[in-house]
Amino acid sequence: MSTHSLLAPSASARWLNCPASIEAVQKSIEVEYKESDAAREGTAAHEFAEMFLPTPDADISEALDFGYVAENGIPIDSEMVKYLEVYRSYCYEHIHSFETMKKYCFVEYAVPLFYRPEDNGTVDFISYMPDQKRLHIIDLKYGRGLVEAVDNTQLIIYVISALDEFEFMFDIESVEIHIGQPRRQNFDSQVLTLEELEEWREKITEVVSRIDSGEAYKEKEFGPSDKACQWCPLAGECRAQAEDIFKDLDMDLELSERSNVIQLADRLTPEDISKILGRQKEIESFLKKVHALATDMASRGEKVPGYKLVGTLTNRFWNDQEGVEKLLAQKLKKDERYPSKFISPAQAEKLLGKLDISSRYKAKFEGFISRGEGKPALVPDSDIRPEYRLYDDLELMAALE
Ligand code: SF4
Q: Contact 195/163 with Cβ under 8 angstroms?
């Protein structure tokens, strides 16, 4: 089975740690790929970055006046302008000079992947610094989830591929891989020697060859871990992941025999799902308690290996109500600044509860309250509510006649 174009650098944290996942995902015909809102926003941020990076004197905030909208329909906003300015400044810290940008810098540059030359990977920013004899690559991450540069395989794949392309052009002695994550003020980087890159090249090529030959899947080389499973399309329905979680909790899962239906061979069966759900409360409550215990230990200065306490932020608030009212009045209408909304049944009930009202008034009031139908909820068979009936096509046709 071809694994062509499935070995994307951006998914390498998964397939390098869980080589069998490539074929397992391919066999799971029901898995749907959907681009999240965050991913669409990231795509738009990359498009705007590509537009503004090559021109240091371009004022990014002018994009707001022109109302720029990315190809995927996401408009640029003031937050994006602010973060793109920070990202651009970081990139410019790693250029030789503005005068030599055309010679030494490459924006959104497609390089053939070293393990799959017929496929390209797009590097956000490449810069060669002749004085350092170093090739820098910077990857823009627009999301809020912290991304580290150290041993980041996506960047390592990009830089090895870029090296193959640029080594004949420049005198390169080392490389530096960077994450530019302006929303987290995270600008992490790692310097790698050419020898270290060769070791990575060998390691990655070896995994790719096991995936391509089918051996990784045949030998069930699954490698469940937070990092591998985080963005896997099979996460939450994968046997290897479930077995790993239950193993760590030292609970005997006793999953059913693997299904004979090839497409579902690596996914949980309905019986497995029922068994796991049966322990949902137990596991959730246990994990909640462990989390609270670890927080308590850390706040008493006791070290929990691999964890630490960090400060968090509360919701944003106006620090000068009068000032911001004047500022917003320049741009927003009064009803936009002070939206008024009719109260909900619960709010009315609360207010009426404090008043002396007659039973006639109460009955009249209740007559105005209806309840819509919510989404069906999954509960154990023992729940006293009647089972929600799903119409099949024939019943639906009969109902409509
Ligand atoms: S969910 Fe985790 S273990 Fe299962 S295939 Fe995906 S990455 Fe591998």
A: no
